[in-house]
């Protein structure tokens, strides 16, 4: 890492995560204040990217712009890959150059509905390897962060000091039946994909003794609608496993670093 200072970049990523979090909460406040004035979804400040399960809001776009401009001002030679710029048609090519990979709002549907599991996900890649991850959930006040070789930590309103992850070192699970799993359905709801997802869900949760072929009967399943926060909860030890089909780089980049360092 001779040409990048990971400590400096991590501190900067935490700083812009808090700035983005403020933009997200302000966007939510504005949206709900004006909710009664809107007659349709598209006039309410959000649109469908692919289908009704894949939404984008003005706040997504404004937040990504805020983060992009902050990075360009501080690190003009760094590359940038963002979910919304990619969705708008900008090519996303990963090279060996220092690259930021951003999801401005992971959990957009949650944001639209007022469900608080929403976050900004900031990943930093050097020589094609994710080396820094920061995830901030502004409605909850939880921040998760890590750098390669430096461990992972979190802060929260209850514990504003940095706490190493996992919060409690979990013992090896004696069997799958003790596992609490995150499972997401994603935005691809085609017949073929849904058949595979449904079969996987059956095998993860079903009871083989009651006739579910291959059923492992996991302890429980949670679906919170945010890939990044699922990674963060695995890192903290509150989830044992996260399963999903169809994630993108901006969904997992930051979370991978945090989970690995935990």
Automatic annotation (TrEMBL):
Residues at which Mg(2+) binds: 83, 103, 105-106, 251
Keywords: Hydrolase, Magnesium, Metal-binding
SUPFAM superfamilies according to UniProt: Carbohydrate phosphatase
Catalytic activity entry: a myo-inositol phosphate + H2O = myo-inositol + phosphate
E.C. number: 3.1.3.25
Cofactor section: Mg(2+)
Entry keyword annotation includes Magnesium: yes
Leader sequence residues: none
Pfam families assigned to the protein according to its UniProt record, in alphabetical order: Inositol_P (PF00459)
Gene Ontology biological process terms from the UniProt entry: inositol metabolic process; signal transduction
Record pathway: Polyol metabolism; myo-inositol biosynthesis; myo-inositol from D-glucose 6-phosphate: step 2/2
Listed GO MF terms: inositol monophosphate 1-phosphatase activity; metal ion binding
InterPro entries (alphabetical): IMPase, Inositol_monoP_metal-BS, Inositol_monophosphatase-like
The organism's place on the tree of life at top rank: Eukaryota
PANTHER family, per the entry: INOSITOL MONOPHOSPHATASE, INOSITOL-1-MONOPHOSPHATASE-RELATED
Family as reported in the entry's similarity comment: Belongs to the inositol monophosphatase superfamily.
Protein's UniProt name: Inositol-1-monophosphatase
Organism: Malassezia yamatoensis
